[in-house]
Each structure stands twice: as C-alpha cells, then as structure tokens.
Write a structure and sequence with these properties.
about 280 residues, alpha/beta, 10 helices
Length: about 280
C-alpha cells in the first residue's frame, strides 16, 4: 500500500473501531485510537504474517503489550482475515470469544496480554529464540507510555542489549495520558530517549499520528546494528475524534448516540477526502 492507501485503511479501521466499541458497550477507546495508525502500518506494510498460516515458524511476531487496547487489534485481525466478522460482532456480548484483553486462543494473537509490563520480556525471548535458531523473523512489541512505570520493562531492556537483539523492535505509544491523568503527573517518564539510549538501544522519535513517519521509521531500521530498536511514537489520545482528543476520561469509555454519530461523521468526511486525493494520484 502507498501512503494514501494506508491512511484510507486507517480511517476505515477507525470507523470499524467506533462501531465495535459502541455496539459492544465497552472499550479503552482513547488508546485504541492513538495506536491504530501504528497497527495499520505494521499489519498492512511491515509484518510478515499470513492469516492462512499462523504457525509458520518464519512468521514475524507481534505483541500488543498494552493489551487493554485489544479492540483496535481485533479490528485489524478481522480485516486481515485472522478472525471472522461474526466473531467480531459478538464482542461485549455474553460468552463472546473476544475479551477485553487478547489471548492466544484468538487466531493471530501470539501472547496473552493485559498485565502491563510483561510484553517486552516475552518479546526478548522470541527475538533471542530467533537468534539461537538462526531464523530471520523479527519481533515487534507495542507498549503504552503509562506502562513504562513497570520495572520488568527495564530488566527486559538490559537483556535485549546484552544479547544484541537487533531483530527486536519496541514501540511506545506516547500519548501522554493514562487512566489517572497525565503520565508526567502520575509517574514522570522523561527523558524516555536518554533512558533507552543508556540501555544501549537505537532510539527514534516520530509523530505517530503521521502514517508516513511510521512507515519511514520502520523501513529504515538497521537490523544488522547489533542493538535493539525503540520507536517513541508521539500520538494523540483519542486521535481522530475531536471531542476525545487529549481528554483523559476517554482512556476508557463508550460514546452515547449523539457522540457516536459525531464520530462517524468526522471519520466519514476524512475517508471521502482521502479517496478524492487518491483519485488525483
């Protein structure tokens, strides 16, 4: 996909996400929206994964460590053919297969997540296994910024540097807000770049609301550097929905009918504009 197509796909997935959270009656919608562009680029541009061959030993591994943003991942997995629409539509209903956090019973999910701080450690194990088995697959881990207060992350960061895991890519969804408010009020994180560079990681900071910057960051990773890689993805909580953007209360929430219709209208306008731009290319 080119940049316009990736933007179109991201907006279509945003529409699906709003429908899913509204119909399911639950969801961590703010973080879903902030991480959706990264998930779009990963699954439609970067990752070597196949819904028809999910156990291929040479597949890339992806871990959504911020597992409370499962709704965004479910929309992507459904659109890619890992799970079917009927399964997705049951989200939020009694006895639904898809829960509030991803688990390995769901096709395409590599790791049960939701207990924050564990995803990177598992990712280190996967990346180390690839090195030991002389496999070419890469491991990608998406973390939240509030999650950075978990100490196990830094044990994993040290191990990744020790074992020179240049086949490991961590991405922090840096939207600046968590359930209790600003990350810098709850537990100051800055300077994230200096901290991770001190751990021996290659660090790149981008605008994670910009599809082009995400693509360029992932395309330009040097997988022969001898260092693990971190992308600090500066994003907007509630991205793409005007009344949700940078509002902490939308960490978790369900739009009422009026809010739902406003969200659909805003996304629909952007989709139409992007298709116009695509026709001019």
């Amino acid at each position: 996909m080119d940049f316009i197509e990736l933007k179109q796909k991201s907006e279509e997935l945003r529409l699906n996400l709003i429908n899913l959270v509204h119909s399911g009656g639950t969801g961590h919608i703010g973080g879903d929206l902030s991480v959706l562009n990264v998930l779009t680029v990963l699954y439609y541009h970067t990752l070597n994964v196949n819904p028809k061959d999910t156990k291929n030993p040479d597949r890339d591994r992806f871990i959504l460590s911020k597992g409370h943003c499962a709704e965004a991942l479910y929309c992507v997995l459904c659109d890619k053919g890992f799970i079917n629409e009927e399964e997705l539509e049951q989200y939020g209903k009694d006895y639904a297969h898809l829960g509030g956090h991803p688990d390995r019973s769901i096709n395409g999910v590599e790791l049960n997540t939701g207990a924050l701080g564990h995803g990177l450690s598992a990712g280190v194990g996967m990346a180390l296994a690839a090195k030991m088995q002389h496999k070419a697959y890469k491991t990608f881990v998406v973390m939240g910024d509030g999650e950075q207060a978990e100490g196990s992350i830094y044990e994993a960061a040290m191990a990744a540097n020790k074992y020179r895991l240049d086949n490991l890519v961590a991405i922090i969804d840096r939207n600046g807000l968590q359930i209790s408010g600003s990350t810098e009020d709850v537990m100051p994180l800055e300077s994230i770049r200096a901290r991770w560079e001190a751990f021996g990681w290659d660090v790149n900071e981008i605008n994670g609301d910009d599809v082009r910057q995400i693509v360029n960051a992932l395309d330009n990773i040097n997988f022969n550097s001898g260092h693990p890689h971190l992308i600090i993805s500066d994003t907007t909580k509630g991205y793409g929905i005007s009344y949700m953007e940078n509002v902490a209360k939308w960490h978790h929430g369900v739009p009422n009918q009026e809010q739902y219709e406003t969200a659909l209208s805003e996304i629909d306008k952007r989709i139409h504009q992007l298709y116009k731009e695509g026709e001019k290319e």
